[in-house]
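Quick look at the format.
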Amino acid sequence: MVMSAPRVSVIMTLYNKGAFVEEAIQSVLRGTYTDFELLVIDDASTDDGPARVQAIADERVRYIAAERNIGRAAAAQRGYRHGTGEFIAILDADDVADHDRLRSQVEYMDAHPDVGVSGTAARCFGASDELLTWPVDDASCRARLLFTDPVLYGSAIFRAELLKQGESPARSDWMLPGEDYLMMVALSRRTRFGNLKEPLLRYRIGVQNQRHGRDAVHDRGALCKEVFRSFNIPLSDHEVGLQLLYHQVVARPLNKAVVRDFIAWHQELSARVARVPEIPFQGFGREQAQRFRKVFFLLADRDRRSALEFLRLRPELRTWSSMRYLAIVTMRRLLWRSPRK
């Protein structure tokens, strides 16, 4: 008897996460949705993760080995090719799916046939306890494309044809963190996004994370360049350093000149984005303004003169709360530097 294909192929890439992979797999197997297959794509792990996976006696779990390490993006592409489902859902080998995650996401995709990719909110655990949220509608998702991902990849569900037909949106040549973000940027030309507001994923924070211990200036700078290139937006090396301030990353020593350049870049960026059809201009303006305000707190934490210059040039942000924050962090720095008797 020929078995019908499952509606959902869950793709899990594995590289040296043996301590967590069983919990991740069991969170899917014990879920309320049952019409799925789970493909574990090993990327030449050197720990006991593969043995732990192969010891799980459940016919819905398929283990696919690798002869050599090819990187997370290329390993995921192997999973996309091997998956047989109408939908492809992602779960990282160190995360935990809510028991209703797949059921809720399939129901959402059935109700929104125009959406090709959707995700969920996530609750961090491990080294952090934080609720991470994403916009629920396509326009709001697109408004943040120049800053971050519109959908959390680790919680994503895709219509399989998006990943299998035509040129693959996955960047198997990208070996730095952020390949999932670049994939969403590529998909922004093909489909619409959406997200469920419920936290249906537990997102583990710790030393096993891909970004842990890396140079944020280098990695985030390279990612910014590639995203801007994807949208054909000019971006010089100097502007990369200014753009990183939106990401709370400081690429060069702060001073008044940097603040003036950043404020000028804030206006120039808006002008350049106005010519990009994939990004809704009004929504982008709101996202940009929100991140712009947060830069003040970064400056206040690092350099009082820079923060004061920021407020001088943008007096509308000179509020009682901003001045109070600046006074508090300045006093803390003075107390920390004072010699103790």
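Next, a different chain entirely:
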Amino acid sequence: MQLMQQNNILMEIPFLMVVVCMITTILSSIGCGYMRYYSIKKAKFIDVPNKRSSHEVPMPRAGGAPMALFAILAIVFLGLVRPHLIPLSWVLTIGVGGGLIAWIGWLDDKSSLAASTRFVFHIIAAIWAVYQLYPAETPFIFKFAAGFWVAWSINFYNFMDGLDGLAGSEAVIIALGAGYIAGRLGLLAPLTVAWVIAAAALGFLFWNWPPAKIFMGDAGSGFLGYAFGCLAIGSGTGWHGGFYTFLLLLALFWFDATFTLLKRIIRREKFWEPHRQHLYQLAAQKGYSHHEITLFFVTVNMLLFIAAAMMAGIGNLSI
């Protein structure tokens, strides 16, 4: 019995964290429902379909704002009452940087901002994340690469938020998988942050699963991209549970976004403008439903989780 307790990874996870995650899911769902009610009643935050849209009827957006808000509040709360779970550096990274990204996304959802304005804030948040998560003696080239990754994560997650349930379900799967791997490797801060994000995304997904009743908006997608980018650079640089684990878990999103961006640049198109050329959008145009495409992404990401766990050295099926 004593040996079993020593080997039980759950012994490191306090019950308070489980409770906070459950409450975060509930509050995120309630907040999302309120945003839908408010948007419809006040005729605000309404996404009107255009030739670049993947939907055909006006739909409330900014459903990701309460998701981001309650995820941030939960992480800050746990950091204050259980600092061994979430150190101050992580509290500041997600609380300040994540709050900044969610806020600028909220403003963009409310009244579309110029791409250049959003980009400036993305860079500021990325620099802040690197400052908090990387030691001062880290070579500049590594800091630059980390900052670039965080800024790109914000944007590619936003680019991939275009189908019912896609960004929300991917957030749940990626965060649960990343948290499990981090927990098995004894990385409590990434574990806690990841599972809080999964809990918040699950609350939003109740309203966004196909057919969606509300969209995530830039407040939510930007925050998720920032959080995953920070988890990637803040979990170590090696193959075993570090940056490459997230590179694999996020592969579907960053590959589609990067491939499409490069393709548009080569064609000399205005790549900063909205479009319908992502691979998932082309699949929808071919006649596949949002439900089918989302389930395909979820299924592939489950396989990617298995690959990431094995790459991290914990994928021994005999355990």
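The beta strands are 46-47, 59-60.

See the schema section for token definitions.
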